[in-house]
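Lab notebook page, bench 4
Experiment: in silico fold of construct C2
Operator: M.H.
Input chain length: 66 residues
Purpose: comparison with the prior construct
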Amino acid sequence: MAKKEVKEAKTVSNLPLDEQLVAKREELLIAQQSLGNALQNPHRIKALKKEIARILTQINATKGDK
């Protein structure tokens, strides 16, 4: 059962959009802070920014429906 709990904790997609956005922004902040002066994993930061943009697009689309 421990594996199932870990798998559920890693999937953020089952959370509401607002909570997904907060989680991704925190993850981006941590990734940027860990870089320091040298870019260790710029591809991960780029991917996080794209995910945040997709979430924001979904949020804005749902606001337009109301």
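Observations: The chain has one domain: 16-65. Residues 58 and 64 are 10 Å apart (CA to CA).
Next step: discuss at group meeting.
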